[in-house]
Amino acid sequence: MRDEIWVLTTNLDDCTGETLAYCMEKLFDAGARDVWYTPIFMKKGRPAYALSVMCKDDVKDECIRIIFRETSAIGMRVSREERVLMDREAVTADTPYGTVDAKLLTYEDIEKTTIEYESAKALAEENGVPLSAILK
Amino acid sequence: MRDEIWVLTTNLDDCTGETLAYCMEKLFDAGARDVWYTPIFMKKGRPAYALSVMCKDDVKDECIRIIFRETSAIGMRVSREERVLMDREAVTADTPYGTVDAKLLTYEDIEKTTIEYESAKALAEENGVPLSAILK
Amino acid sequence: MRDEIWVLTTNLDDCTGETLAYCMEKLFDAGARDVWYTPIFMKKGRPAYALSVMCKDDVKDECIRIIFRETSAIGMRVSREERVLMDREAVTADTPYGTVDAKLLTYEDIEKTTIEYESAKALAEENGVPLSAILK
Amino acid sequence: MRDEIWVLTTNLDDCTGETLAYCMEKLFDAGARDVWYTPIFMKKGRPAYALSVMCKDDVKDECIRIIFRETSAIGMRVSREERVLMDREAVTADTPYGTVDAKLLTYEDIEKTTIEYESAKALAEENGVPLSAILK
Amino acid sequence: MRDEIWVLTTNLDDCTGETLAYCMEKLFDAGARDVWYTPIFMKKGRPAYALSVMCKDDVKDECIRIIFRETSAIGMRVSREERVLMDREAVTADTPYGTVDAKLLTYEDIEKTTIEYESAKALAEENGVPLSAILK
Amino acid sequence: MRDEIWVLTTNLDDCTGETLAYCMEKLFDAGARDVWYTPIFMKKGRPAYALSVMCKDDVKDECIRIIFRETSAIGMRVSREERVLMDREAVTADTPYGTVDAKLLTYEDIEKTTIEYESAKALAEENGVPLSAILK
Q1: pLDDT tens digit string along B107-127?
Q2: What is the CATH number of domain D2-84?
Q3: Are F19 and B121 a contacting pair at CB < 8 A?
Q4: Is F38 in CB contact (< 8 Å) with chain D?
Q5: Which of A41, C115, E65, F134 is deepest in the core (most CB within 10 A)?
Q6: Rounded to two decimals, what is the model's pTM?
């Protein structure tokens, strides 16, 4: 499966970690598909972070606005990129502690199952067992 | 406001930090708009840095030459990317210790002011106060 | 010299370092030109790594398959990028401990020589001297 | 003001980001004072993270147990370190949008005020203004 | 179980990634228990790496000598630290593709099993299956 | 040669890169021997930096004060560590472009020479040659 996605990127050397975490939260609230920070070293010896956002057409303008409103960014790069995706289907998986939500992922003849984190976490906490007891 | 910018990128596992800092200085001297280093982990267990440069058409060829001359790079990726920018206007801002240079930035209805670092630094040092006393 | 190259990128917050190193090995075995990991900070407080692969047309599909098979990735960005390369010629270089393989690299009037790591390493180990005694 | 604190540290190359974030949550729940992850590059080309925990005597044993239970760690370094701390007093600060919780911090003749993040965040969200409008 | 271990640390801003990887190899050959690199940002805008080595008494002097011989270090910090370790016992684990070497780890009432990477890797390659098919 | 040195460390999630670079400058002005930043990932999804300072007894108190005055730190760890150092002697080294300042470093039977960066840089710039032409 293929689609296209927008990637927004900006380098931030005058924002705090608190502000960066707050901005990430607002971007996810607005519908961004992924948001991440990369440590970078900028001019004048400044340790900094690059902010990257992946989003679809419908929320792109709002994501740009959030970045300008919530961070010190005065510009950002905007590029459209192609993605290759595995097909995904919601399934459930059995664990020694009960059933969890999972995704069955397929691409050509490759098949794998991923357990949903929130579902595994809930089961681990309910049963007082390590997360790894559910995920394995 | 929109424009287009060149981004040059290369991965360097056989350059020292001294050389990387020297190269950044030469790139800014040549007119690069931004230069940054990202820590990356490469083949054969090599801790390394990716060099990234943003520049306009007029200095692109010189930036490529500086990278080839000053680093161990034998190739680099060159891509043209679109940017979204806030409109900017030079203004001044009042602080308890005097006036500093600032930029008034606007994008649609979003407006913010950024104090120029060098101006804030000069005022902090003149007055023997923390930088934060000026920037706030 | 110019060419074009594919860059595959995916963010991995549910893969271990062991798996990432194994996947890098498989990608190089399949003919990838370069593979690297970048530390990134993702949603829900997850420390993670971005995987990047540079490869030519002939192995692109196999690289995509390796990433889907060996990691937890459910999607990846795929972009075609232009590269600028120095011309390269296999040469040898003399060191106080014997001859090593090297590359003579040229771009316009810029010329530099890079000693091949594996060749330098072999000579350092044979002679019981530091690697730097060969590389200088 | 001075005190002593335990620092627990372990390098993890066979844990996922999901697991690391889960473990951080459990460590804070148990009373750890600070928990953080540092990207590191380990043997056999493995991109990894170091986990560090700062905690007081009363929860040290439980923090050790959480790390062993929730991660792949088979050992950790445990050291007792001295800290220098600013004196802190709970205060409030006025902002254009209302009052926020803050801390007045003093050390010898140095005095500064830090606004509490959660309090600033609540006010920003209530008033539909950027976080920076509160923090400044 | 508790023991004590030496930790050697030095910051390197004038060493290449090639040299750092070579030095790691020599340190492990000499008997170091763990070696890792941490990205750091140093003076004069230099992107750099910190080298850390954990070793026992018997190889400490040789590890110091390797660092001085193979890197640009002119000094290093040397500290003795306490460790808490899980008890470990060599066991085997069954997988759908055969038996692998593993370690049974115990600490108080916590018990976990870790599959040995090299053993899992060999089995994955023999059977043409993903590494994850063995590790799970 | 052995000596002892103070190491000050603090985690900063509410400081900007501009402020971090300014603080590093003030710490070196005050006589710190080394200052560096390490990217770390802290609580509540905050990308951050750890500040580390190495200093001697005579400037330790001033370094602590600078960190409290110039950053958002409310505490820091302070530890005394032992160092092993190579003996150093100021020498000069010949290059194809003239003489540069260098250090002759010795430890037991290990001997190496390091060219002083500022001296190499001056010569490279005077002669219009790459820095590597001097350093090799």
Answers
A1: 999 999 999 999 999 999 999
A2: 3.30.70.1380
A3: no
A4: yes
A5: A41
A6: 0.97
